[in-house]
Amino acid sequence: MGKARTLAEPFRIKTVEPLRITTPAYREEVLHKAGYNPFLISSKDVYIDLLTDSGTSAMCDRQWGAIMQGDESYAGARSWERLESTVKELTGMPYVLPTHQGRAAERILYGILGGEGKVFISNTHFDTTRANIEFTGAKAFDCMSDESLNPETELPFKGNLDIEQAENLIEQYGAENIGAIILTVTNNSSGGQPVSMRNAKEVRALCDKYGVLFVLDGCRVAENSYFIKHREPGFEHKTYRQIAQEMLAFADAFVMSAKKDALVNMGGLLTLKDAKLAERCTNLLIISEGFATYGGLAGRDMEAMAVGLEEVFDSDYLHYRIKSTEYLGRHLHEKGIPVVRPFGGHAIYVDAKKFYNHIPVHQFPGQALVCDLYVQGGIRCVEVGSVMFGKYDEAGNHIPPKSELVRLAIPRRVYTQSHIDYVLDVFDDVIEEKQSSKGLKMVYEPPFLRHFTARFERIK
């Protein structure tokens, strides 16, 4: 065997975008004006933006070329026909609804399936999924084993849905009241962890047993396929696309934010097997998004999405994508930073509760770390803990979630290894100043998705 080589990017750069260098004092002022919420910071004041991997990818030359071929006809555009054909071939589902992004697809589907008295079960509902469900008056429950929720546990498929917990909920609330079981691949809110094919098969069997709808939220289905190929016996000789197709075949519906694994900056999909449900969803699509053959998208968007859904399964791309994320996680772990292991595909998650163990949970240690990374190095990232998922009891007391994480989401094909090395250097500064970091108190929050617009003050 030859020596290990540097993980080089499987692309070369054709266009560059300048980044602005600022000082810690300037960034502290910016953060204060933004209410210590990086969502409210202007992008011009950010050096390395790891807030999300959603819609932040760099598109390839083929996608930009396809954009110039966009057919902007209102109905039956060539661009729609190309996208529809690509999606049907991937999902095996006959009904395809384009939307302007994933949460629009969620709003349409869960607006129909939800309502007072309805219950939705998932491995972990992401923020917009939970909000769209709860907005209808329905309840959303996460079902994961305690072992999977331990950041330090090394399991190959920590994103799996706990079948026993899910079945208990079905028995408790009655199968007729279950809106759907939603399997999110990869499991974003739980450290970007993958879901096994076996687990998808078990969910299918559970849904068949009780007559419940199975929804696959697969915005990172290609990344999930990579982990199945390399971790689950029996898939070694299948292509990443074949693995995705096999998993999608188990589901009754597929929801996708195309801003992730379709490698585009805007777009979403909802695909269905049932004709009657598809008709109801199409009617709502036309009312709220646009005609059925464009939804909320321009023809050029659909062209780029069709190319992205093909390109994302390229073996060189997926190898680089997963290994470059692992590079960041491995080096943070070597520095003693507590991170969720094994490393996910699209992001590295820091266990903020363990890292900032001097900051109590009700003072939001995750948000404190997010703020410190911005001040120290201009890095923007996001808290996935008490700010995003915390609730209140009837007395108004804070109920924290089980995990207090900070997500470093890596845009696709945007940053080079030297940028990631810079991120690692900034963590050295954060480690040095760790004990002087202070918690935060929330001074404003909206009723839904509070992490987007909440405002904070530093605790003196």
Task: Produce a short descriptive summary.
By secondary structure, this protein is α/β, with parallel strands linked by helices. It contains 18 helices and 16 strands. It has a 7-stranded mixed β-sheet, with helices on both faces. The chain has a 3-stranded antiparallel β-sheet with strand order 9-14-11. A two-stranded parallel ribbon has the order 1-10.
Strands across the major sheet, in which order?
A: 2-8-7-6-5-3-4
Instruction: Summarize model confidence as the mean pLDDT.
Output: 95
Q: In the residues, how many domains can be counted?
A: 2
How many beta-strand segments? 16
> What does the largest sheet look like?
7 strands, mixed
Q: CATH homologous superfamily of the largest domain, by name?
A: Type I PLP-dependent aspartate aminotransferase-like (Major domain)
The helix-and-strand class reads alpha/beta
Number of helices: 18
- Look up the CATH topology of the largest domain: Aspartate Aminotransferase, domain 2
So what's the overall shape? globular
Strand content: 5-15%
Instruction: Give the oligomeric state of the chains in this entry, treating copies of one chain as homo and distinct chains as hetero.
Output: single chain
